[in-house]
Predict the structure of RecA family profile 1 domain-containing protein.
Amino acid sequence: RKRVVRISTGSKQFDSILGGGFQSMSISEVFGEFRCGKTQLSHTMSVIAQLPTELGGANGKVAYIDTEGTFRPERIAQIAERYGVDPEATQENIAYARALNSEHQLELLNTLSREFAGGAFRLLVIDSIMNCFRVDYCGRGELADRQQKLNQFLMKLAHMAEEFNVCVLMVSIIIPVHALHAVGLAYNACQTNQVQSDPGASSLFAGADGRKPVGGHVLAHASTTRVLLRKGRGEERVAKIQDSPDCPEREAIYIITNGGIND
Ligand code: ADP
Ligand code: MG
């Protein structure tokens, strides 16, 4: 029988609200606005997953699906140095793939399934889940198609997590409402329409914190654990558990350093 493993975030406080780190055999979603540290967390965990369990790792290889072009091998090397492990070997243990569009993103899972069958992989990062989908399915009329394809992708992900005892770390973004209305600023009109027409998005956050997630209810229901990241005071960042089968909705403060996520 496979045993669930936990992978550290790099921050003791963050780990403690998760009950020790993000778990294998399920999907975890981290979501938040720009620059709150989603990509930095993805990099940090890509290093830690390779470490022995005593150091919060899972002795495993890592697969990294990058849809935004923000993966930086140099950051991996810097984080490896923090943990005293060989930077090059650490980089080589990360199977990196740039997803070019949503079809390709789905195909990558099939390729990875074959690799995961070897049993060496413990972490799969997707940074970020919706980027290709919202570009490929741009018009309002295409929303149903998009959600169907997205659902297919998420079901495959959940299956892989369980079958191969892998921790899936799925990054998604939320867009501040003021940006939704400021057409032509951070987002083009196409993406703005996409978000505003997302069913479920408005009911999920219903004005509670003035933000709307991209991906709506299909995305929110796919993950077992959901963590909201946001900026705090100064350099501080805040992680808040939104949804978890076994952890209360607590908050933790973390920072981003040269060595990755830390306390
Ligand atoms: P997101 O993916 O949520 O948009 P990122 O994970 O890219 O955000 O985090 C961006 C933040 O990380 C920026 O505030 C940036 O200053 C910080 N950052 C990036 N590299 C380093 C580093 N080497 N040392 C400290 N902070 C860093
Ligand atoms: Mg990012």
